[in-house]
Structures are given as structure tokens and as C-alpha cells.
Design brief:
Elements (H helix, E strand, L loop, with lengths): L5 H8 L3 H4 L3 H14 L6 E5 L5 H8 L3 E6 L2 H10 L5 E5 L12 E7 L8 H9 L2 E14 L5 E2 L2 H8 L3 E8 L14 E9 L2 H11 L2
Parallel strand pairs: 1-2, 1-4, 2-3, 4-5
Antiparallel strand pairs: 5-6, 5-8, 7-8
Helix pairs in contact: 1-5
């Protein structure tokens, strides 16, 4: 999947129920989850691997200012069209090192991207650095396929987050068919990680070294 030509896939990408969110029930299901995962007050959200901007649109409708990043220019073009007139910016770039300069965000939202990156721990550290104090990482991941499964198990992801995050909560998503347009049997989940500030990390590191 990491070798997919996403520019070629862009035109049909939204045909998948959980990509286009065209079914009102699927859309409501994702909107309810995002309302829980993202900050309660309007803030700045960075949507990495944003695709055609379906989750960006929901975040925008909930009052957030959205910056979306995707490696595919065709996906970014569709996202810009989908959110035309809204407080949203879409950039072509690498999700692992997004081209956002010194801008900081209240939440970094990443769906089905981390598992495909060659150095997920490094990406998580970089994303942590893009957050304001008290910000959160919202990571939607899973393990897909039965014969040759791909993905990242929840236990591995929480382990990667342990050095950089404070409170981490895991929500299992496999048992909610509305999110996917039908029942699924593989592992799908979301992790919401509240990020410690650097001072707290330093104190804990010093304590651990005594």
C-alpha cells in the first residue's frame, strides 16, 4: 500500500465509505468521534495525510481552523475544492515532516498514515514538536488483512508514545460499523495522546536517572 500512486487514486478515493463520508450516517459517526477527540473549543488542527479533506471538512464544520497536508497534489486539489471558502489551507508535503514552518497546533490528526512511515517513532516526536502546550495527537490506525496483515497494533503505538505523551487513551473502533460503512473484523482503533510540556518531561527524566 505504501507504493500506491495516490494521484491516480484521487478521483475514486471518496467512493470508499470511510473516505468520502458521503453516507449521512457514516458522516455523523465520524463527526461524533472527532467531537470527542479534538479540543472542545475552536483551535488549530493539522490534518496529516488528509487525502481529499473529508475529516478536515468535519473539523472545520466544528469550528476549527484546519491545515491539511498530503503528498499527492491531486488529493490536495480535491481537498481545496471540498473546503473552498472555509478557514482551511492545504499543502503538498510529507506527512512525516509537514511544511508548516514554525506554526503550532492544538491537535495533530493523522488517520491511516503512521503505520506506513519508515520511522514512526521519529514522526511522532516531530509531530509532538508541532503542538502547543496541552495539545494532543489524534491517531487513527489499525491492522488490516488476514494472510499478510499490515498496520500497527495499538500496543505498539502506545509504547511509541510512552516517552513523549502524558495521558493516552485508546478507543477500539472495529465494533462500530457506521464508521466503515459496514461490519469489519480487523483491528481498528484511535489513540488520543495528551502531550506533556518539555519541563515536565525534563523533571521526570531527571527523576528516572536518580
Amino acid at each position: 500500500m505504501t507504493n500506491v500512486d495516490w494521484d491516480a487514486e484521487a478521483a475514486s478515493f471518496d467512493e470508499e465509505p470511510d473516505h468520502g463520508l458521503r453516507d449521512p450516517e457514516v458522516r455523523r459517526a465520524w463527526a461524533g468521534r472527532l467531537r470527542d477527540w479534538l479540543p472542545g473549543r475552536a483551535g488549530d488542527v493539522l490534518d496529516l495525510g488528509c487525502g481529499t479533506g473529508s475529516l478536515s471538512l468535519i473539523a472545520s464544520e466544528q469550528g476549527h481552523r484546519v491545515t491539511g497536508v498530503d503528498l499527492s497534489p491531486a488529493m490536495v486539489t480535491l481537498a481545496r475544492e471540498k473546503l473552498a471558502g472555509r478557514d482551511a489551507v492545504f499543502l503538498v508535503g510529507d506527512a512525516a515532516a509537514p511544511p508548516v514552518g514554525e506554526q503550532r497546533f492544538d491537535a495533530v490528526l493523522v488517520r491511516h498514515v503512521l503505520w506506513a512511515l519508515p520511522e514512526p517513532a521519529r514522526a511522532l516526536r516531530h509531530w509532538r514538536g508541532l503542538l502547543r502546550p496541552g495539545g494532543r495527537l489524534v491517531l487513527v490506525e489499525g491492522v488490516w488483512g488476514s494472510t499478510e496483515p499490515v498496520g500497527i497494533p495499538a500496543e505498539r503505538l502506545t509504547g511509541l508514545l510512552a516517552p513523549i505523551a502524558g495521558q493516552v487513551r485508546v478507543q477500539r473502533l472495529s465494533d462500530d460499523p457506521l464508521l466503515w460503512g459496514g461490519p469489519v473484523t480487523d483491528e481498528r482503533y484511535a489513540v488520543v495522546a495528551e502531550i506533556r510540556d518539555s519541563g515536565q518531561e525534563g523533571l521526570e527524566a531527571a527523576a528516572a536517572g536518580q
